[in-house]
Amino acid sequence: MSREEKRHDRSITRRDWLASLTQGMFAALIVGALRPARESTAPIRLMVYKDPSCGCCTKWVDHLRAAGLRPAVQDRTDMDALKESLGVPVALRSCHTATADRYVIEGHVPAGDLRRLILTAPKGIVGLAVPQMPVGSPGMENGGRVDRYDVIAFAADGSTKLFAHH
After folding, report:
1. Which terminus of the chain has a lower count of CB atoms within 10 Å, N or C?
2. For residue 86, which of 46, 44, 126 has the smallest C-alpha distance?
3. Residue 132, pLDDT above cutoff 60
4. Is the four-CA dihedral 77, 127, 137, 150 of positive or negative sign?
5. In whole angstroms, what is the distance from residue 88 CA to residue 80 CA?
6. Which of 62, 57, 63 is nearest to 95 (CA)?
7. pLDDT band at residue 42 under the 50/70/90 scheme
8. Distance CA 93, CA 30 (A)
9. 8 has a pLDDT exceeding 70
């Protein structure tokens, strides 16, 4: 093989290599775009604020721990003032309030929904709430009875939207 043929042979190989590299980079970009906004194997840490005499709040904390989250608990007697300071809309309030990452979690929100909120980090959302205390929600188990309930996402301007339905 002449020197000229070898050089021509290398340029084709280089061209093929560049095409292959470009295809690989394009595939990596697509996979990256399809992944959640944030992935973490680190446990999600929360601060749960509850009334010291509330049993369902303690059961909700147990639910979080069983799901692999790391809640710390602070008993408080001024829950309405706390909820007001965190921007929880009155219509969405329940018995306990938590903070996780930059979000406020109000009431008996399932751990899976809380995890999805943290991992996807939707813009404009201040927090999640399960208003009142629906039977069958985490911490409100009552035998086999499970009432249907919604998990509501809320924004700083007071707007809300459905986050999950159970």
Report:
1. N
2. 126
3. yes
4. positive
5. 9
6. 57
7. confident
8. 40
9. no
